Amino acid sequence: MSRIRLWLTAAATAIALTAGGTASASLPAAAHPSALRHSTLNVCVAVGVDGLSSATIHAEQYMPARHARGVQVFIPGVTYDHRYFDLRTKAGTVSQAQQAARNGWVAIALDRIGTGQSSKPAAGSVTTAAHVASIDHFVDTISRRYARLPIVLVGHSDGSVVAEGVAAKSDKVDALVVTGFMYRTTQPSFEGFPS
């Protein structure tokens, strides 16, 4: 638990800087957007629930120009893919993922199964339980790739529900940032949500 509290402060600071947008004016020259390294990831993961044995999760990854302070894995909501965290508008790019990388984080914005460039199984297999299981295995892969770096899950809307489910199952998650959904005092009604 103490590791989670320690990194939660760092994650909250990174998210606040990302959301604020004003922090980029004070960034050092090495943190200029062109200094970021971008790559795509396609990770085959086990799922093992709701008739889905395995799936491929697609993600866009941004690497910081300096030593990484940790990894942020961005999980979008139901009607979005990775582009929710990497918006391209007529006015230019507004990217929470790129800002996180400029702030020293490995930033990974993923497409949940059934969205973007990830696997698209039959609709009946695209459940909360399948999302939790697939992203849990995705986090295992990321943890091996970036050993000894803390991992922060950043969820939006239903992606926050999934992030909470993954954090409840995984011993690899050090912090959790949830946005865009309301807590309830009643039991969640999401099928497959871990107890």
TrEMBL record:
Stretch forming the signal peptide: 1-25
Annotated keywords: Hydrolase, Signal
Name under which the protein is recorded: Alpha/beta hydrolase
Ranges where the Serine aminopeptidase S33 domain occurs: 97-187
Bilayer-crossing regions: none
Native species: Micromonospora rubida
Short name of any one Pfam family annotated for the protein: Hydrolase_4
Coiled-coil region(s): none
Gene Ontology molecular functions: hydrolase activity
